[in-house]
What we know:
Layout: H1 2-18, H2 20-27, H3 30-36, H4 40-61, H5 64-72, H6 80-104, H7 106-113, H8 119-144, H9 148-179, H10 195-211, H11 213-221, H12 226-256, H13 264-280, H14 282-305, H15 309-332, H16 334-337, H17 352-368, H18 370-374, H19 379-403, H20 405-430, H21 437-456, H22 462-494
Helix pairs in contact: 1-2, 1-9, 1-14, 2-9, 2-14, 4-8, 4-12, 4-13, 5-6, 5-8, 5-12, 6-8, 6-11, 6-12, 7-8, 8-10, 9-10, 12-19, 12-20, 14-15, 14-17, 15-17, 15-21, 15-22, 17-20, 19-20, 21-22
Amino acid sequence: MAGGLRRLVKETAVYGLSSIVGRFLNWMLVPMYTRVLAGTGEYGIVTNLYGWTALLLVLLTYGMETGFFRFINKKEERAPERVYASVLYCLMGSSALFAACVFAALPAISGAMGYADHPEFVGMMAGIVAVDAFCCVPFAYLRYQGKAWRFAGIKLANIGLNIFLNIFFLVVCPWLHARCPGAVDWFYRPDYGVGYVFVANVFTTLFTLVALVPDMLPGLRAKADGALLRQILRYSFPILLLGIAGIFNQTADKILFPFLFADKAYANEQLGIYGACFKIAVVMVMFTQAFRYAYEPFIFARNKSGDNKEAYAEVMKYFIIFALLIFLGVMFYLDILKYFVGEAYYPGLRVVPIVMLGELFFGIYFNLSLWYKLIDETKWGAYFSAIGCVATVAIIVLFAPVYGYMACAWASFFCNLLMMLLSYFVGQRKYPVAYDLRSALVYGCLAAALYAAGMCVPIESEWLRLGYRTLLLGLYVAFLLRRDLRGVIKGLRKR
């Protein structure tokens, strides 16, 4: 078990280069967007369209990533390339069909989404989503092969190119146009503004597709198996609904918000403020995502070897501990982190603690969800997803017109909490795991007490306030080291 956990920690660190570090680098674009784009409304367009992109990406992969790992790790599977080929060809066809349908009806779709003046925004989004959905399969194959460094390298190269192109189009080109128009007039339009965010993404998506060609070849050369594909689809479909619930909690607000207000310009301005401040809370999402990349292959491989429940409980314990540490770290240093967005966006900072706790609940829910994946009863994921989606939409539709984006933040919080509780109680009946609830309660209460102490004590001086909160954060770390990490550190030193 210890060896498996060490492997999980190692792979989480490597995948973190592309997930945590990569998202952090993209996050660093937020200061530029909130200062360079023409008002909060333009950033609202970015928030809205990338909300659609995230949701569509889940729909177009329809749970096949998890299905891929489940079937390629089955004891009786003797031809992993057969699984790879079946999934690869399936997603290739569905992605191409999606792109063709969108481009065929582009004017109508763009008008319905509120982008009749810029249908190319929707067209670029469709192309990006189609290629990204297809590329998720070779990325999953890299994870299966344990090629974490190649996985991270391609992801980071993609992100680096995206950052370069964003800076080029939004900062360098305007500067050149003001001083030497002839140098950029042949391709650059000063009034296009936010459109260049999507142009940059198109180029980076094509780069990733080309970079993954060598990793696609084993699947393209192998023969797909129709019977096997049907099994994978049956297994994966409920996971699609689970994925929709997960991403819908993060995107329903960004997708639905503009439709709930008669004044679309006002809606985009408010959505821009909310979307920028939401990015501060993305630190918790980054941690959960990096954990997921290593954890999903780990649980199926561990299930294959028969060594499982004790490891799952221990992993859950440390996930909660470090997620709470991240929550406290972000909240205690929010006075510094707020400078990553423009001053016009500061009113939205109040959503940060709500969104972070909601993402913590979803991270726990993801860890709990292993039970129905391992016993092949993914229908439960579908049930929880449906309940969560209904709760999210109901809260947003009923309360967002009155309370604005605060209702969106609370919708995510309550939906994730509800799904977490449902998965735990049903899971303990179907696939009991002795989770360390005592530790979760102890650390939860400690974090709550420290958070209250840090936020409720009025200290005028910013430096004294930061020093006081740093001391509180140090108390949490000291407690963690004394209670749970001392033995682990000693064990590692002996090795």
